Amino acid sequence: MKKLITNNVYWVGKNDWELRQFHGYEYSTNKGSTYNSYLIKEEKNVLIDTVYQPFSTEFVNNLSKEIELSKIDFIISNHAEIDHSGALPELMSLIPETPIYCTENGIKSLKGHYHKDWNFIPVKTGDKISVGNNKELIFIQAPMLHWPDSMFCYLTGDNILFSNDAFGQHFCSELLFNDLVDQSELYTEAIKYYANILTPFSHLVTKKIDEVVGLNVPVDFICTSHGVVWRDNPLQIVNKYAEWAANYQENQITVIYDTMYNGTRSIAENIVKGINSSDKEVNVKLYNAAINDKNDIITEIFKSKAVLIGSPTVNNGIMYSIAGLLELIKGLKFKNKKATSFGCYGWHDTSTKIISESLKESGFEIILDPIKTTWQPDMDVLNKSYEFGKQFVKQLK
Ligand code: FEO
What we know:
This protein is α/β, with parallel strands linked by helices.
């Protein structure tokens, strides 16, 4: 069912309340997601993006109730990833000649996914097409937000920025607009999305925001491809992105561990006590990586000025949950964060070396040698862990 955004612009997407994992199993979507597709019905009828592939039949059926498909004059594919282009094969089988406007990289990606030679029209930043009634769609390339092919488009007259993945959230709601939803839920999902998906491209986010703001055009709506449409003070999310892209951090330290027989956990808990005793204002948080959502932990790291990561030594290495987390951290290219490691071992002292080395490779500044012990920590080690927490805080200052 279509929903009116403004004048002749409609949302024709899909709300996916059931989605719990995205990008395979890389990203948890505990609040579901939406695949936002938009229909502009001016003198020209324009479809902007489609929906995730499993919903292609439902999407095409619904769309055909809103408009005779042959009357769609052109399609804009802002981004070729399957969650936005997934219904194109089914749609194009019914209207095969319809032009698809996308970037050169979009053509490559769409051909790579679907192996079809549709009527592609490549566009680049500054290109525009008229939709009639004195309104135009202007294209703005946005490479790596989130893939090389990504672009935005801007509808003059209605002052709408269609930003695709940028400014989105994996957050399902029947309440289409940002001012209608729970603000805490909205921003929890928005920062998680930024931390887990956009962090490595922060320098490009900053550049793109400067470029869009530099256009000096009014923006009344930001229509993303996931989550809400920003209509109430739409630039609030742009300002948030500018903040998040600038090596964002809060006054937070996050301690993360995995444990077999609670030795590494006991060290972690005493480190937390030490940190808390010497800095009453810092928000120190403690997570067992094996039982917490990996994407929530990444969001906490994103918010932190420093992290301490611990694991016992297992088979000369580290525990699975910590190894996976370190791999995620490596890809996200966090900046301006401090760190160290801790852990227990039996006969090979390797876990803290592996963790500190990995954090260093990922761009973290190691400000303190690790704390470690053989077998279970005794009272002396627990006291030292407490002092270690205090020392870590001192090194941060
Ligand atoms: Fe929502 Fe990069 O796709």
